[in-house]
Amino acid sequence: MTETPSHSPAHDELRRHQRSQLKGSMVSLVAWAVVILPIILLAILVFATVLEPSASIATPGRIAIAVGGAALLFCMIAAPHLLGQAVRFRERAMWRAALVTGIPTVCVVLYFIFRWLSNLG
Question: Global pTM?
Answer without folding.
Answer: 0.79
